[in-house]
Write a structure and sequence with these properties.
This protein is of the alpha+beta class. It folds into three domains: 111 residues, Beta-Lactamase; 124 residues, 2-Layer Sandwich (Alpha-Beta Plaits); 87 residues, Arc Repressor Mutant, subunit A, CATH 1.10.10. It contains 13 helices and ten strands. A hairpin with a 2-residue loop joins β4 and β5. α9 packs across α13, α10 packs across α11 and α11 packs across α12. It is elongated and about 95 Å long.
Length: 371
Amino acid sequence: MLLPKLAEKIVQEVRKLIGEDIIVVNTDGSIIASTDKSRVGTFHEGAKIVSKQKRKLIITEREQQSLAGTKAGINFPIFFQNDVIGVIGITGDPQKVTPFGEIIRKMTELIISENYYAEQFDRQARAMETFVMDWIQSEEWNDSLLNRARLLNVDLRIKRRSVIIEFDEQSQMIPRDTWSTILSWLASNKSEPAIRWGNERLVLLMDCSRSTSRESAEKRLRKFIAFLNAKGLIAYAGVGQVVLPSNIRNSFRQAERAVKIAKQKRKIIFDEELTFEMILDELNPKAKMEFIQRTIGPILEEKEWLDTLKELVKQNNSLKNTAKALHIHINTLYYRLKKIEESTQLDPNNFHDLVNLYLAINFLDEYTKNQ
């Protein structure tokens, strides 16, 4: 329960409150953490007495001579769930350090309690992650999956939607405390398994037993994304269709397809909204790369021209809005489009050619993001 890593954390936190040397000792009397590193691993007879008697022990300079490994100060038993699990000692003049003793003991017990429940939460979260991944990937259910579902209180009888919530690109790892807060928020609805999927994604298997409407699901997701925004996280969601639990892998596949579009459009996208994107998603990467080479291959090194094409597509082929968005004169835009046409033999003013350019730009964007 009281391991050296946690004991070291306790020492560091307590030292912020008091300038004296601190020790944390296990119930066998062995010092497992100390501000004085030379004392780690040594025996402390006073702590052994405290563990047995379950009460504080003040050691004077005279008494330290008769107790092995001790120094003047005060030692308190650390309780967890009514049992002594260790001792915390403050070295120094007993009269000076005693007033801090009870506060420091309470603080130590609070740190231990928080650490225990955090570990329990992490253990539960890891078990749920493994279960959900297996559920999504399983074509047939076996006894192991069914037993784990019962242990985790996951109902395998109700209809669900798969939801993938993806965070905007993170320059840093999302802190553990933030993840715990997010998963705790989702855990308030016990009928909906929610797990981390790497550092940038959450997977939620939404309970649709009461309502299968898109409006209901979107309302709930908007509320959750607003909660994430309040935590400083920008997020989008791809949502699969409502399926029987045995078909959850299909709903997850749909959510994966939808979240790609959701990130581009920075919104919540439901699979049932997709049309053109359904066909594009079925194409294999090799075919997409060959298409890129046959269309915009000659201008792949011309970043300015590619950016111009991307903005033209974004602005629904409006030359005026494209020039404005790029902060260039309309004549500059005409010049760039003419050069693009000469290099690719595709005219952006021709609908057929524009569709080819649109597809090529989307495939290139997808390829770049997957690198």
